[in-house]
Design brief:
alpha/beta, two-stranded antiparallel ribbon, 12 helices, seven-stranded mixed sheet
């Protein structure tokens, strides 16, 4: 089979399955099956594909047509300029989560300063590993309730050569840890239980429910974090949490009641309030 014909057939199959960018994804799947980059494919569209490659490509296309996330099929996903290993045990890193990294960077102008970072519900480790690559003097701990997720996070830390500055703890939220941490980050589950049923098939069928289901109001995780963050956060430390659509006010109220200062709620490129920046005020000195 000619490469051109294989791509045409794959793009048509993906388009019929409702994939938004079928040609682009077909090229990525063909690269995974054959090792031929997009440049190779464009430069020689009449190249013949051997039978084994054509069969492997067809299997990948069928998986994607069944709405398995592309990142799970390829086994990796880019986040903030780094490539992370992913699997169905962890959420696929999303571009909007990069806002959390930017907020932390803005608050920490000295990338070499020593500090301790906590990533609650680390998943793939994309947040913690990215921050450790940017903050050369930092040590970080990632927590997760899933052992398989922690194995992937550890692998990603080693992949990006920050494994010697990262530790991993299996626990619920951060209930096994003691502070203080100068930086706490987290992308908690915030989808309401009822909303899960109408999400895209890629999310609903394939991504870990544990990392998505935030309870009836989508706020269960934030209530837990409002209890756990204050005793772990250093004075004048910062916490940055991702938000679901329309949750900014409710989460701000929970954190304010917990004694944290609301510094900023930042929107993503779509204008949705996506991240909340919190600070623990310094305690007044007793004379």
């Amino acid at each position: 089979m000619r490469l051109r014909d294989a791509l045409d057939h794959a793009a048509r199959r993906l388009r019929e399955a409702g994939i938004a960018e079928p040609r682009m994804e077909a090229r990525l799947l063909l690269e995974a099956a054959s090792g031929l980059s997009a440049v190779d494919q464009i430069g020689d569209p009449d190249r013949s594909l051997d039978e084994a490659t054509a069969a492997a490509f067809e299997v990948l296309v069928e998986r994607r047509a069944n709405r398995e996330p592309l990142a799970y099929i390829l086994g990796e996903k880019e986040f903030h300029g780094l490539v992370f290993t992913v699997s169905p045990e962890v959420l696929t890193p999303r571009p909007e989560t990069e806002i959390l990294v930017e907020l932390v960077r803005e608050c920490l102008p000295d990338p070499a300063a020593p500090l301790r970072i906590l990533d609650i519900g680390t998943g793939s480790g994309c947040l913690l590993v990215t921050l450790l690559t940017l903050c050369r003097g930092a040590y970080g701990i990632g927590t997760d309730l899933s052992f398989p997720a922690l194995r992937i996070a550890r692998h990603n830390a080693e992949r990006h050569e920050v494994g010697d500055r990262a530790g991993w703890v299996c626990c619920r939220w951060a209930d096994a840890l003691c502070g203080p941490f100068q930086v706490i980050v987290g992308n908690p589950p915030y989808v309401t239980t009822s909303e899960l049923a109408v999400l895209q098939p890629e999310i609903r069928r394939h991504e870990p429910r544990l990392a998505l289901d935030g309870g009836p109001e989508g706020l269960d995780a934030y209530r837990a974090l409002a209890r756990e963050i204050p005793p772990l956060l250093a004075e004048d430390g910062i916490a940055v949490l991702e938000l679901g659509r329309g949750q900014g006010g409710a989460v701000a109220g929970l954190m304010r009641e917990a004694g944290l200062e609301i510094v900023e709620i930042r929107p993503d490129l779509a204008g949705i309030a996506r991240a909340i920046l919190l600070r623990k005020p310094a305690q007044p000195t007793v004379a």
